[in-house]
Amino acid sequence: MEDHMLNNKEKKLIFTLENSLKDFEKKGNLDLALDYYNPNNFFEKVYFISYNPEDIMIEHNKKWLEVISPIYFSFLHKIKRFKILFLLILPFVYIIHVLNLIWLIKKEKIHMSRTGHPYLMSLSLLVASKLCRIPFVSTIGGDNRLAQEKIGRYHIFNNKFLSFFLEEFTLNKSDVVIVPNEYSANYVKSISTQNNIAVIPLPLRDEIFKNLDKNLRIENPNNFLFIGRFVGDKHPDFVLELYIQYLKNNPDSSMNLTMIGNGELESILKERVKKAGLENRVLFTGFLNTEGITKYLEANPICLIPISGFVIYEASVFGNIIVTSDIEWHSEFIEDNKNGWVGKYLDIEDWLRKIDNIMSDLEHSRKKALILREKIKLLSPSNIYDNQLEVYKKLFDDKL
To answer: Do 369 and 387 have their domain in common?
Structure first.
C-alpha cells in the first residue's frame, strides 16, 4: 500500500461469492447486489471472480466492474458429473486458483478484498489477500449451521467438520466481518474469536420504497402466501403441512395457498398436494422475479415465512401480515403480536394458534403489520451505503 492517501480513482476491489451473479440476475437484484459491494462508486475498479462461466455473459451497466471466470472453472464445470475425477483434480485447481488471485492482486495493484459466505471461494481469496497484505472483508447473513444441522447436509463436500472449520477460520482471519443484524453478530461471536464486526442491514431496492405510500387494504383475503426456494432449509414442506392442518381444523375456510419458488422439493410438494386432494386449492407459480413477487404481495396480505431474507422485508413494505419463526433474526425484526406474529420453530400447533389469532380480527392484525413500515425506512440503499463506506474508509486509514 502506498504511503500517501489514496484518492477515489486509485482504489481497487476484488471480490468473490459462493453463489453466482446469475442468482442475483434471476431475482432482479443484480444492480443492488453490485452496488452493495461498491457503494457510491467508492472503488474505481472492481474485479468479480466467479466460478460460473455464465457470469461473464451477464449484462450490467457498471463501468467499474470486470467479471472474471478463470478457464479452469469452466473445465471443472464440464467434468463435474464425473465425481471421482472431479475430486481428484479439484485440489490442484484450487492451488492454481490461489496463485492466480495473488498474481491478479499484484498485477492490478488491488487494495482490498471482499467476500460473501465464508467457504471455499472465500478461503481462496483470504489466503491470497493475506499473502499480498491487503484488507479482507467477509460477509455472513446468519446462523449458517442451523439449517445444515437440521437437514443433515453440509456445504463443503457434505462434511460437517470441514464446513464448520472453514467458516470459523475465515471469520477469524477477516479484518472485518459485516453482518445484517445483531443476531448474526452474536452468531459470529459464538463460533469465532472475531471482534471487529459491523452490523449493516442488507438494502432494499429504491423502487420498493414507493410502495410505502400505498394503502393496501384487503377486506376478504382468500389466500396464504409462501415465498422461497423449495429446499429443506426454507421449509416449504412445513408450510404445506401447516395449511393442510389448518383446513382440517377449519373445513369451511375459503383460504387457499400460493407457493412461489422452485427447487429440489417441488415434486415432493406437488405429490403431497395431490395426495391431500388439494390440487384446486394450492397454486405453484414456479420461480418469479421481484416484479412478479410484488404482484402477489400486493394481492395477498398474509405471508407464512418460516425462514427467509428479503421476502420478509419486502412483505413488510406492503403492510403484509407476516407469520415467521422465533429463530435467527426474524424475531429481532418482527415482535410477536406487536408488528407481526412469531411462532415456535417448526411447531405446527403454535403456528395454527397464530393464524387463528390473525383471522379472528383481520383489520386489527393489519394495523399491527403496518407498524413494520417504520423499521423498513432504515433499509434504504443510501443509509446502507453510507454505513459500508465508513467500514471501507476505516480499513484504508488503518492500513496507511
So the answer is: no
List alpha helices for 174-235, DSSP H: 182-191
* Angstrom distances, CA of residue 68 to CA of 50, 56, 57, 313, 342: 6, 7, 10, 32, 43
The residue assigned the cell 437437514 is 151
What is the rounded CA–CA span in Å between residue 267 and residue 290? 23
**In this predicted structure, what is the pLDDT of residue 292?**
85
Indicate if 186 and 292 belong to the same structural domain. Answer: no
pTM comes to 0.74
- Residues of the chain with pLDDT > 70, as a percent, come to 94
Co-location of 181 and 292 in the same domain: no
- What's 286's domain CATH number? 3.40.50.2000
Q: Count up the domains in the chain and report the number.
A: 2
Q: Show the CA angle centred on residue 27, arms to residues 24 and 30, nearest 5°.
A: 35
Whether 2 maps to a domain, the answer reads no
Does residue 135 fall inside a structural domain? yes
Per the structure, the complete domain to which residue 265 belongs is given by 206-378
Strands 12-17 and 112-116: parallel
Instruction: Write out pLDDT tens, residues 351-383.
Output: 999 999 999 988 888 888 888 877 777 777 788
Summarize pLDDT for 56-90 with one digit per residue, the tens.
Answer: 888 888 999 999 999 998 888 888 888 888 888 88
